[in-house]
Design a protein that fits this description.
alpha+beta, Alpha-Beta Plaits, 2 domains, 4-stranded antiparallel β-sheet, ACT_dom, GcvR, UPF0237/GcvR_regulator, Amino acid-binding ACT protein
């Protein structure tokens, strides 16, 4: 089996997911994982597919044909299933605070400095109901190698939370 990673983006309209799913099904592919969302009128996402090795080229060609059907961009990459070390752990981090530029950069820099790999990142801004202004909220799932000093990581995240005035919860 071959793993394919699709990135898709286009003006949001009904039927975009169905168009991709129809092509995947027509070539015997299996929709493994995905993260798809509408953002500011654009539908975008990442999809992991698996397909028999002898169908990969045909499926890839058919998927590229979708670009003329309303998808502005579509990239097809060959993926490699990840091997996870037995002693790796997952860490969940929640961030909440007043919105301002640079929050994602600063948090991701701390995680990178400690050799964490971001597995999932979801962010959102919304109006602050009682105080006015905008709130920033993020949910991060990161892979933590066994060699990471969790106390040092926690201390750096707490220092950062104070500096940028956000609440950071680690579980």
């Amino acid at each position: 089996m071959t793993t394919l990673i699709l990135t898709v983006a286009g003006a949001d309209r009904p039927g975009l997911v169905a168009a991709v799913a129809d092509v995947v099904d027509a070539y015997g592919g299996n929709w493994e994982n995905s993260s798809l969302a509408e953002l500011a009128g654009t539908f975008a996402g990442v999809i992991e597919l698996s397909v028999a090795d002898d169908k990969e080229a045909e499926l890839t060609s058919a998927l590229r044909g979708l670009q003329g059907q309303g998808l502005l961009t579509l990239a097809v990459l060959t993926g490699t299933p990840e091997t996870v070390a037995a002693d790796d752990r997952l860490l969940e981090i929640q961030v909440l605070g007043n919105d301002r530029p640079g929050i994602v950069r600063e948090i991701s820099t701390v995680l990178s400095t400690h050799a964490l790999s971001i597995e999932e990142l979801a962010t959102e801004t919304r109006d602050a109901a009682m105080a006015g202004g905008r709130l920033f909220e993020a949910s991060v799932v990161a892979k933590v190698p066994a060699t990471v000093d969790l106390d040092a990581l926690r201390a750096d995240l707490e220092r950062l939370a104070t500096e940028i005035q956000v609440d950071i919860t680690i579980t």
